[in-house]
């Protein structure tokens, strides 16, 4: 497995394992964010009124597991003190993630920019649904590798 600083522009990475998005995860995200829309929490109402016939994850829940997925596709580097989520250049939610479905992230390095604190990695990312193979989310995520101080 490569480290972040070993990646070259154009390289792609894929999360090895699927992550199942459980109703419990959705409930905890609602509690943490205060987003209690019925489409996420009310299974009975969703069964009757939702076009998905089940609850769906918050889009930002799907986006919020990206850093863990990113960490899972790379080896640790002694040269990096910390990797920081630097932001998102673009983000689109294309398909709902239904409760109980599994997701997997794919990443493509598109740019590396030197910054005073380290290197900024621009990653085109997609989150694919196990149930359909379609992307639930696409975006360009920015990760800053803060380098260890040189001696």
Helix content: 10-25%
Q: With helices defined by DSSP (H or I, 4 residues minimum), what is the helix count? A: 5
Low-confidence stretches: none
Order of SSEs? EEHHHHHEEEE
Rg computed from alpha carbons, rounded to a whole number of angstroms: 17 Å
Beta strand count: 6
Provide the residue-averaged pLDDT.
95
> Oligomeric form of this entry?
single chain
In terms of structural class, how would the helical and strand content be classed? alpha+beta
N-C termini distance: 27 Å
Main sheet specs: 6 strands, antiparallel
| Spatial shape | elongated
**β-sheet strand percentage:** 35-45%
Question: What does it look like?
Answer:
By secondary structure, the chain is α+β, with helices and mostly antiparallel strands. The chain has helices at about 25-35, 40, 45-50, 60-65, 65-70, and strands spanning about 10-15, 20, 80-95, 100-115, 120-130, 135-145. The chain contains five helices and six strands, in the order ββαααααββββ. Strands 1, 2, 3, 4, 5 and 6 form a six-stranded antiparallel β-sheet that branches. It is elongated. It starts with 11 loop residues before the first strand and ends with a strand. The relative contact order is 0.24.
């Amino acid at each position: 497995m490569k480290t972040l600083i070993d990646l070259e522009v154009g390289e792609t990475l894929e999360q090895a394992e699927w992550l199942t998005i459980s109703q419990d995860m959705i409930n905890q995200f609602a509690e943490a964010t205060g987003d209690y829309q019925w489409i996420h929490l009310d299974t009975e109402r969703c069964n009757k009124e939702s076009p998905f016939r089940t609850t769906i994850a918050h889009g930002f829940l799907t986006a919020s597991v990206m850093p863990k997925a990113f960490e899972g596709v790379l080896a640790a580097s002694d040269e990096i003190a910390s990797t920081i989520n630097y932001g998102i250049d673009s983000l689109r939610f294309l398909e709902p993630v239904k409760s109980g479905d599994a997701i997997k992230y794919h990443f493509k390095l598109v740019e590396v920019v030197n910054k005073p604190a380290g290197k900024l990695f621009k990653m085109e990312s997609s989150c694919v649904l196990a149930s359909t193979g379609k992307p639930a989310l696409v975006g360009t995520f920015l990760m800053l590798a803060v380098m260890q101080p040189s001696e």
